[in-house]
């Protein structure tokens, strides 16, 4: 049986061969392919951590756990040595102040200065806010993760077991609009859990390995 990682290698080969060359908002440009899908079977207890390139899996796990707390502040990430979200608040600070501060100095100030962290370390209503504290038009906050867990336990045949992060009203206030944005779950009659993750945009070389373990999976 072919190793499931070849899905990733095949996808990169297909993008290089047939991807659409585009100019994007960054000005760097991309080679793009629409609608690709990868499937992984986790029923034997393994996780599809890709080995073709080095994956900082501890960083990925720390980031996901931070999302699950509902966090939107940079400081807890930096305290856990996760620096993948610094670019956006740093760019905002440089633009607002005109100060050409380097990343290390900016991060050190976030960690040491409460007032500075409060003003410049907020990432806006990104993933964690939408997952755990989605603001409804009734003024209430909705915990999508808690609702999902409740439905998995009480109504496993439901076709409504999903949550998402694309809150149109709050997109302008986010440091970065969500890339992975819709997550749906399905429980079979014999108790197997299936999950599907949809990404509107994905850097296949850099970002995809972080999420390969939850894109589509089955767990006994």
Topology:
Layout: H1 6-18, E1 20-22, E2 30-32, E3 40-41, H2 57-69, H3 74-79, H4 87-97, H5 103-112, H6 114-120, H7 127-132, E4 134-135, E5 141-142, H8 144-154, E6 162-164, E7 180-187, E8 193-199, H9 208-211, E9 216-219
Parallel strand pairs: 3-9
Antiparallel strand pairs: 1-2, 4-5, 6-7, 7-8, 8-9
Total number of helical segments?
9
Give the class-level CATH name. Answer: Alpha Beta
Strand content: 15-25%
Q: In the CATH scheme, what's the topology name?
A: Thymidylate Synthase, Chain A
- The averaged pLDDT comes out at 91
Total domain units: 1
Oligomer description = single chain
* Alpha carbon gap, first and last residue: 20 Å
The total strand number stands at 9
- Using the 3D structure, state the CATH architecture: 2-Layer Sandwich
| Major sheet characteristics | 5 strands, mixed
Order of adjacent strands in the largest pleated sheet = 3-9-8-7-6
Our Rg estimate from Cα atoms comes to 19 Å
- Overall 3D form: globular
Fraction of helical residues: 25-40%
Task: Describe this entry's structure for a reader.
With 220 residues, the protein is an alpha+beta fold. The protein has one domain: Thymidylate synthase/dCMP hydroxymethylase domain (Thymidylate Synthase, Chain A, 2-Layer Sandwich). Helix content is 37%, strand content 15%. Helix 5 packs across helix 6 (114-120). The longest helix is centred in the N-terminal third of the chain and has 13 residues, at 6-18. The protein is globular.
